Amino acid sequence: MKTSKIIAKLLVRLVFILILVAAVWITQNNDKLKGLGYIKLNTWTLIYPVLLIVGFIGLLITAAVKKYNSMDINLLLIVNTVMLLIYAMAVFFRIAYH
Asked: How many helices (H) and strands (E) does the chain have?
């Protein structure tokens, strides 16, 4: 149980660090983002990232309230965070190398 607690905390911190790095990258490369032009988004394609983000927030709050002592919630948070990081990397590479 202790390893799931450590990994869950490590991944949550990694997500917040990557959010800060992404914010810095966006402010420095704003002209590259303007060059993307108009991207047509279907509302149904946004369901997966919204579910990942809402699930991450819900699991993070639940794990924090239980002080990361519930192994099941820790494992769900780990899986959700890994999937969120993979999705974020895919979006980053799509934008960075467009």
From this structure: 4, 0
Identify the CA nearest to 5 among candidates 57, 83, 78.
78
- Overall pTM surpassing 0.90 (yes/no): no
Which amino acid, residue 14? L
- Are 78 and 4 contacting, i.e. CB atoms less than 8 angstroms apart? yes
Q: What integer best gives the mean pLDDT of the chain?
A: 89
Q: Count CB neighbours of 74 within 10 A.
A: 23
Q: Give the separation between CA 19 and CA 7, rounded to whole angstroms.
A: 18
CA distance 93 to 86: 11
The owner of tokens 């794990």 is 63
Answer whether 5's CB lies under 8 Å from 75's CB.
Answer: no
